[in-house]
Amino acid sequence: MSGLLTKVLINYPYLVAVLLFTIGTFTVLTHPNLFKKLLGINIMESAIFLMFVASGNIRGGVAPIRGTTNAEAVYINPLPSALMLTGIVVSVSVTAFALALIMRLYKAYGTTDLRRIAARRKEVISDDHLDQG
Amino acid sequence: MTTLIRANLPVLVVIAPLFVAFILPPLARRIRLVEALALLGAVLGLGGAGYLASIVLTQQENPFIYQLGGWPAPWGIELVAGSLGVFFLLVVGVSVPVLLFAQGNLAAEVGGAERVTRFYVLYLLLVGAMAGMAVTNDMFNVYVLVEVATLSCCGLVSARRYPRAAEAAFTYLILATLGSALVLGGIGLIYLITGHLNMGFAAQELSRVWLARPHVVLMAVSLIVVGFGVKAALFPLHVWLPDAHSTAPSPASAILSGLAVKGYLICLVKFLYGVFGPTLLQEFAVHRILTLLGGVGIITGSILALTQEELKRRLAYSTVAQVGYLILGFGLLNVTGLAGALFYLASHAVIKATLFLAAGAMLAATGKRNVRDLAGVGRKMPITMAAFTIGSLGLIGLPLFSGFIGKWYLLLGSWEAGLILPAVAILAGSVLCAAYLLPVIRAAYFAPAPEEDWPDPGRPQKLALLLLAAAVVILGVRPGPFLELAQKAAAELLAFY
Amino acid sequence: MPYTALDYWNMVLMLILVVTALAMYFIKDLLHAVIVFGAYSLMMALIWLQMNSPDLAITEAAAGIGMTVLMMAVIFRTSRKGE
Amino acid sequence: MLALVFALSSGIIGGLLVAALPAARTRLRNMVVLFFTGSGMICSWLVARQVWAGERLRFAGQLGGLTFCLDPDPLGIVFGLIAATLWFFTVVYSLGYMAGKAHQRTYYAFLLVAFSATLGVAFSGNLVALYLFYELLTLTTYPLVIQERSPEAMQAGTKYLLYNLAGAAVLLLAIVLTAAWGGRLDFVGGPILAAGLKTGLNWLLFLFTVGFGVKAALLPLHRWLPAAMVAPTPVSALLHAVAVVYAGVYGLLRVVYSVFGTTLLGELGFAALIPWVAAGTVLVGIIVATQQDILKRRLAYQTISHLSYILLGAFTLHPWGLAGAVLQMIGYAVLKTAFFFCAGIIAEQTGVTRVSQMGGVGRSLPKTMVAFAVVTLGMIGMLPLGTFWGKFYLMKGSVAGGKWPLALVLIGSGIINAVCFIPVVVRAFRDENKRLSITERGVRVTLMLVPTMLLVVVGLGMGLFPGMVWPAVQAVVDWFF
């Protein structure tokens, strides 16, 4: 028992990553508000980043940056954090795009709540070329 | 010059559409030029794919390995154009006729020149990403390409200023991001235990270490299957697809249903067979789950399609069903079945593009969305409806059309796997497919036509429809190199089994 | 257990992370939720720094600020109550 | 070789030509239709002569790893000749029947393409080609079934299509299994699965029976056939006696003699069951027929009954049974086509579609009703007509095959046939006619009457001189035994 507990606790970043991922996914799937869904997406993605970076991290290691270290230093694996850089950029663009869509939906329906959108859908799209151009 | 091109072929195929995409925005004023350049970008990609296919098929170099920046794997990133990659690169060629179709009616569907340009930019980004998925051999690259593809898909879905489309795009964006997050998690777990992002090296390492960490591997497999499953509309995860594909502008629907979904499936195949390997799949019974989901997907998707009144929604649900065929074939775990699924993938790409474009042309000419209102359209728009008919017959799986060959090998594959239920699902799927597509044809040809005048679309659209319809027939009558590539790819993927 | 001081710091930061993430779900006022998101992003940046990824920390900070500002802008133009 | 290719393509070429002609050019269209069915028929006879002379006409192509081949053998020739010849008669009849009706261009175009599809089924040399033409036949006859475009016709058409496509799907599964077990799909070179007994062969036979049984209107799968009666009469004649149902029966004969072989089938439990199912269909079909008031429906149920004669003969697994089946195929097709033609003339000239209204029809349409009466005798199986010999050999075969109760079923069926149709004839000649002005004169009626009379004469000829068709039957029996 204690062995397992130790194993889990020593890997606490992964535990937190899983927790955050769950919270994020839960928000995305259950919250009716579009903003909250977006926040959920961000939480979810950062959870994955945390897992990735934690896998590259070495206890007591140092970042491989020129001029700051001596020869005996243990370097961390820089690859995951470099990759997650791309990941963050991607998540920013997803957020920006989603915000643009939210704006558009608000213009059409006057709300950012999915339940209200569903209720108003019928009256708004009687004509499908409503606001073309 | 030629040697330079030949040496850099895999990367050029990906770069050509992307490059064109980036030079388009400043030219937005000159819409003709934009259209010509966009077409050029797609054609260049297809031409490169054809050249690459000839190299690989004649065994001059198979697989054709390209190291980005000259760094050898595992340190550098490599592109591998094997049989599978080349096969999918050729399938990406569907984008050319679809683009040709888009040139005529896009302005009417999405609005001004600037929006049309944006559409082409997103379109070419999608094509570039798909080409990248075909040749990449690096897992993180897959993630990046998947994200590029997802964002451009969402852009394409929301290209019409139409609240329903924005809603569909938002749902799609959220679920697709969820899917890519899952995929990234899966990739992270594989990296965690193998220390490689290169698929080949990861596979080698994985075959050594998986026994020590079976749970991590199981977790990774599930994350990747579910992640790509969401993106490729694998049956219970398909909820976003019907809205997204039916509200998008018609060329976008064609490319989304025909191609985008297939890109994720090819990635899934690469992960399942190229990273985990058949032995592991069998160990965790993943293949059985895939076959089961595929079979259920075929039946449910078809029945849902049957209940749709709106033509484009009917086609969208039909995509859910057809993805079921592919997933079912991926799970059969034998060369015949996998080759059948791959060939079916190509065949469905062509057929669904034809169907969506024809439906789009009808929608543009008549303004009618429902199947019932399209009575008599066959007499007024003979070419459009002829293309639609050929596509439908292909999807139903009649001999002489491409769908038949895919279905034949899928059936043979399910027999080889010793399973009878998948075969039943495949056949029930084709009967249901006839039930939801033939009423459209019946209404079009045999119902009295109204007085209104519905002309066939313009010349580029007609050409696009005829090209695609011809491809459906050619793939059915002379599948030759395509089938050969599919079989080779399947044999290579299952080589160590 | 071989925890160092660094680990305890990390744990505290991650605890805040989880709490803010949960808070984002429950807070009704969208503007407040986005402010909490800013805090979440800051915690994340600190964690990256702790994990020896200064490059990631800088990016996260910049991205966090950018996203928070964007979201606020959108919220001011739409509805704060999320209706 | 050339004859084979032209026989097959004449329908398709003619169909495309008809579709390309403007709808108003009626005379030209009629010429085209006559020319292409006629030349298709002549080419089929040429093919038949070559095959009977022992030549092998093989025409093969690749279809993505599958061979697609045409290779007529004596059995295919029999079916092909029946189809080609009767098609020509039907086209002549159609020229009279369809005159002045709507959608003629669609009608003739699909009639011609369906002609090619039927000949394709007959001349196919392997299961892939058979399947291809089988599906093509379903799709090209669909527009013929919904020719009227009424809601009722549309409904019947949908039923027709779904039944047949579902059947074809089952058939495809059976073909895939055959390919996997037998390793080849060609008909020539002995039965495909003769190599040995395997578990699962019963299921395979079941799949084949269901797959072809839908078209052959085997009892629980027959529902589409009575519904398809809304089609114009010449189409009904084709559906019932020449093309569609015969394609199903022909497919089952193929399964028995080219896929399984008699030795293997003799060991299968399911194969022993089928003749009894067929016998049940014979009796139930004809009994249901006696209760129908609409004449065409009565004929439809009779078709269901009579097709099972052929299946019954095939599954006796005895040379005499096979001979009986082939003879029955020929004789029945000729007479049933004539039967439908008569019903069509009656309906067109007097408007009578129900048996109960038939009183006096014989007075105003004497020639038609005489033909009707002769055909009725043929359906019962009386001597001066061709069907007698078919029935005779079927009985001989079932006794020789050790299944003597089947012979009793055949006799019983003949009696019920008499009960079913003789009163119709009697009523037609005896009762008063209210509309005496109706006559059998005019080009239109002549066009319908001449093929009918000719078919009756052919039926009589086959009865009086069975030696006329015997060589064809002999060739089939020699080919398989």
What's the SSE blueprint?
The complex is a heterotetramer of chains A (133), B (497), C (83) and D (481).
Chain B: H1 2-7, H2 9-23, H3 31-57, E1 64-67, E2 78-81, H4 83-92, H5 95-110, H6 113-135, H7 139-157, H8 163-194, H9 199-209, H10 214-231, H11 241-247, H12 250-283, H13 286-306, H14 311-330, H15 335-366, H16 377-380, H17 382-396, H18 402-416, H19 421-446, H20 459-477, H21 480-493
Antiparallel strand pairs in B: 1-2
Helix pairs in contact in B: 2-3, 2-6, 3-4, 3-5, 3-6, 4-6, 4-21, 5-6, 5-12, 5-20, 6-7, 6-12, 7-8, 7-12, 8-9, 8-10, 8-11, 9-12, 10-12, 11-12, 11-14, 12-14, 12-15, 13-14, 13-19, 14-15, 14-19, 15-17, 15-18, 15-20, 15-21, 17-19, 17-20, 18-19, 18-20
Chain C: H1 5-26, H2 30-50, H3 54-77
Chain D: H1 2-20, H2 26-52, E1 59-63, E2 66-70, H3 74-97, H4 104-123, H5 127-145, H6 151-182, H7 201-216, H8 224-227, H9 233-242, H10 244-260, H11 262-266, H12 269-290, H13 295-314, H14 319-350, H15 361-364, H16 366-380, H17 387-400, H18 405-430, H19 443-464, H20 470-480
Antiparallel strand pairs in D: 1-2
Helix pairs in contact in D: 1-2, 1-4, 2-3, 2-4, 3-4, 3-9, 3-14, 3-19, 3-20, 4-5, 5-6, 6-7, 7-10, 9-10, 9-14, 10-13, 12-13, 12-18, 13-14, 13-17, 13-18, 14-16, 14-17, 14-19, 14-20, 16-18, 16-19, 17-18
Give structural notes.
The complex is a heterotetramer of chains A (133), B (497), C (83) and D (481). Chain A is mostly helical and 133 residues long. Chain A has helices spanning 2-10, 12-30, 34-56, 78-109, 114-124. Chain A has a single domain (2-61, 76-124), classed as Orthogonal Bundle (Helix Hairpins). The longest helix of chain A is centred in the C-terminal third of the chain and has 32 residues, at 78-109. By secondary structure, chain B is mainly alpha-helical. In chain B, helix 4 packs across helix 21, helix 5 packs antiparallel against helix 20 (459-477) and helix 15 (335-366) runs antiparallel to helix 20. Chain B has a domain at 285-497. Chain B is globular and about 70 Å long. Chain B has a two-stranded antiparallel ribbon with strand order 1-2. The N and C termini of chain C lie far apart (49 Å). The model of chain C has no long low-confidence stretch (mean pLDDT 86). The longest helix of chain D is centred in the middle third of the chain and has 32 residues, at 151-182. The relative contact order of chain D is 0.10. By secondary structure, chain D is mostly helical. Chains A and C meet through helix 1, helix 2, helix 3 and helix 4 of A and helix 1, helix 2 and helix 3 of C.
Quick rundown:
The complex is a heterotetramer of chains A (133), B (497), C (83) and D (481). Chain A has 133 residues and is an all-alpha fold.
